[in-house]
UniProtKB/TrEMBL annotation:
Its main location: membrane. Gene3D superfamilies: MetI-like (1.10.3720.10). Coiled coil: none annotated. It is a multi-pass membrane protein. The keyword Metal-binding does not apply. This is Sugar ABC transporter permease. CDD domains: TM_PBP2 (cd06261). Keywords: Cell membrane, Membrane, Transmembrane, Transmembrane helix, Transport. It is found in: Cell membrane.
Length: 309
């Protein structure tokens, strides 16, 4: 059937020979097929364990009474616990120090090895990257020897400089700083690689224009490098934050959360509560608290680094 204008009526059958592409060959279906393995992995390895932890945090398990629903009771008990509040305070202090330190050093080294012509830059860059190839547990053992109170490399160097020996990992005032030094030694080279790639993507014409304008190296960094490095820097800052909030192996190997709880980070406290005390309900509640803290910190970072498009 045709309309007055000679065009096929709406809903009429397609002309003979007209090919209609199957639904599964559409762009959305192809994209979904490529994304399906990642979506399955995300569901099984992230979303499902997260939902399980959230559900378990609302229950209490006892050998005598079995599992019982307690609602927000585990959370209330946690915040009433002095050890948990101390772990939160230590974690926030640790995050406040280690993230700016690692990112700042990574930025400085990335600029030094790309924009400033340094003798032996490739060799020094390789030495900075080398700790990435070392497992964290092995790095922790190495640094336990360096920080040994008696006969350790750090105190030997202090003795040469005429300074008294320090406790490092055995001192409540120095243990957290020692862990931060170890983690920075591991992480700086890794984050530096992303920033070097970002700097290499900055158009050379911008640096040439800054040089013609007589801009100093500091002005060039603030006006050219830093604004153009915003996206890689945002990724590095967020990734470093998440990575440092999940630190576990160095604390377990070197300090066990001590001395006097000075290195009792939330991730280690979760492990201790779940496997040393057998309190799975409160441990899962602590996991939820750690996830919330991470999301809040990351959201603040995205807010601060959000670029004006």
């Amino acid at each position: 059937m045709r309309t007055g204008g000679g065009e096929p009526a709406v809903g009429s059958r397609p002309r003979p020979g007209h090919y209609r592409r199957p639904w599964w060959r559409g762009t959305a279906a192809v994209a979904l097929a490529f994304l399906l393995p990642s979506l399955v992995a995300l569901t099984l390895l992230r979303l499902l364990p997260g939902a399980t932890a959230l559900w378990g945090s609302l229950h209490h398990t006892s050998l005598l009474s079995g599992e019982s629903f307690v609602g927000l009771g585990n959370y209330l008990d946690l915040f009433a616990n002095a050890d948990f509040r101390g772990a939160v305070a230590v974690t926030l202090l640790f995050t406040l120090v280690v993230n700016p330190l690692q990112v700042g050093i990574s930025v400085a080294l990335a600029v030094l090895y790309t924009r400033r012509r340094m003798a032996g830059a490739k060799v020094w860059r390789a030495l900075v990257i080398l700790p990435i190839a070392t497992p964290p547990a092995v790095s922790a053992v190495v640094w336990s020897v360096i920080f040994r109170p008696e006969g350790g490399l750090a105190n030997s160097l202090l003795a040469v400089a005429g300074l008294p020996p320090q406790g490092f990992l055995t001192s409540p005032d120095q243990a957290l700083a020692s862990i931060i030094v170890l983690l920075s030694w591991i992480g700086v080279g890794y984050w530096m690689l992303f920033l070097i790639a970002g700097i290499n993507d900055i158009p050379a014409e911008l640096y040439e224009a800054a040089e013609l304008d007589g801009a100093s190296p500091a002005r060039t960094f603030l006006s050219v490098t830093l604004p153009m490095l915003r996206r890689p820097l945002s990724f590095v800052l967020v990734a470093a934050t998440v990575s440092n909030l999940l630190v576990f192996a160095p604390v377990q190997i070197l300090t066990g959360g001590g001395p006097e709880g000075s290195t009792n980070l939330l991730m280690y406290d979760i492990y201790s509560r779940a496997y040393a005390l057998g309190d799975m309900g409160r441990a899962q509640a602590e996991v939820v608290v750690l996830v919330v803290i991470t999301l809040v910190i990351v959201a603040v970072q995205f807010r601060m680094l959000r670029s004006e498009d």
